[in-house]
Amino acid sequence: MEIIIGTHTVTEELENIRVSDYLALKFPQLQSRKAVKKALKKKLLLHNKNIALSGTYVKQGDLFELLEEQVTPPKIFPLGLEVLFEDEYLAVVFKPAGFPVSGNQYKTIHNALPHNLSSSQETDALNWPLPVHRLDAPTSGLLIIAKTHGARIALGEMLAKKEIQKHYHAVVQGYFNTKGILNTPIEGKKAESHLKTLSISPSKLNGHLSLLELSPLTGRTHQLRIHLSRLGHPIAGDKIYGKPGNTIGHKGLFLSAIALEFIHPKTNEKIEIRVKHPAKFDSYLAREARNATLE
User: Fold this and answer.
1) What angle is formed at CA 10 by the lines to CA 7 and CA 15, rounded to 5 degrees?
2) Where does the record place the Pseudouridine synthase RsuA/RluA-like domain (predicted)?
3) How big is the chain by its Cα radius of gyration, in Å?
């Protein structure tokens, strides 16, 4: 049975825009042209109730529907996860650093979810729980999980409408005392985050280290990492966007999603979850400050 997990109606007048170019960012699950092309290839997109074709031109009033991909059951990965919230509709878990949310491999959070969450008893229960959004593999933090079809659709729409607030803590290189907005485009697309400095510590290796709280308003790939690197304050441990010498042994990336705020799509309850950043953040800051005083 085909299950529709998202719809989009074209409201504006368009000229000479093809399906493959138009649909990026129109569904929360399709955040790039590459993702759109993959969905088109798998025939997961309907265009006015027919299989969508990449080269078709889009017109005002067109209806697009995104179908749920039929995938094989996960091979259970027995990784214990901290569960911060769970009911019949959704859950929030803490993702440890070093594991991808999903992908073509065994050790993923997706494969660990059935080991940690109970099955929903709702009539529209998913066969197994599914992540609603992503975190980079080296990033730790709070992750929303859908347990029913209805919750998955509603949470996806909330993400697209920016109705789910996410907050991160990061340790960055250098003295960065600020409060404001990061809003330089990434790959030509709008990318915006709020940030404020929480503390600044001396560092033998970096001069200073700054602990920041960041709240992304858009969801570009590696958004926070790219913005901070551009400013000359890369996140400590960032092997892609960091400066030479900013990787710390085997401590990984110092970025963690520490808070979520959203309205429960079924109960209308306000869900607010905040956790402390990983202990390695404080240990690293204290160690660097101690080493700096010994110089």
Assistant:
1) 145
2) 90-229
3) 21
Q: Number of C-alpha atoms within 13 angstroms, CB side, residue 127?
A: 9
Q: What is the reported pTM? A: 0.79
Q: How far is CA 28 from CA 24, 104, 175, 208, 285, in A?
A: 9, 21, 35, 38, 36
Per-residue pLDDT of 3-49, as tens digits, reads 788 889 999 988 889 998 898 878 877 867 888 998 999 999 999 99
CA angle 182, 225, 284 (to 5 degrees): 115
- Domains of the chain by range and CATH? 4-67 (3.10.290), 82-161 (3.30.2350.10), 165-256+281-293 (3.30.2350.10)
pLDDT (tens digit per residue) in 244-293: 666 565 678 999 999 999 999 999 999 999 999 999 999 999 999 998 88
